[in-house]
Amino acid sequence: MDKNFYEQVYEVVRLIPKGRVSSYGAIAKSLGAAKSSRMVGHAMSYAGAAQPYVPAHRVVNSSGLLTGKFHFDPPEMMEKLLAKEGVLVKNDKVQDFKHLFWNPLEEITE
């Protein structure tokens, strides 16, 4: 693959279905870079400028917390975008996280 890591991250994130969420670590593992979850988070902080659109609001931490919300303007926008897709968030945490979790390793077939 000739694409840079950020673009690979964005390709995976674009596959997350509406109403589902994934985690930084799961995305890193799906790219063969299991120890690079922080790099995935860093990529998400720049996703707003990426084309085509990257649904960065669907990426949360491994507990379902909206740790990336401060990269949205305003920060409440992350929760609003999730709510628009039917994802319930309470106290900055995705409710029913295990049920809504989308694991790219299981969902993406090459």
Write the layout of secondary structure elements.
Layout: H1 5-14, E1 22-23, H2 24-30, H3 37-45, E2 59-60, H4 77-84, E3 89-90, E4 93-94, H5 97-100, H6 104-107
Parallel strand pairs: 1-2
Antiparallel strand pairs: 3-4
Low-confidence stretches: none
Order of helices and strands: HEHHEHEEHH
**Cα shape:** globular
* Neighbour order of strands in the largest sheet: 1-2
Radius of gyration: 13 Å
Work out the number of β strands: 4
Describe this structure in words.
- The chain is mainly α and about 110 residues long.
- It is built from six helices and four strands.
- The protein has helices at about 5-15, 25-30, 35-45, 75-85, 95-100, 105; strands spanning about 20-25, 60, 90, 95.
- It has a two-stranded parallel ribbon.
- Helix 1 (about 5-15) packs across helix 3 and helix 2 (about 25-30) crosses helix 3.
- The longest helix is centred in the N-terminal third of the chain and has 10 residues, at about 5-15.
- It is globular, with a radius of gyration of 13 Å.
- The model has no long low-confidence stretch (mean pLDDT about 95).
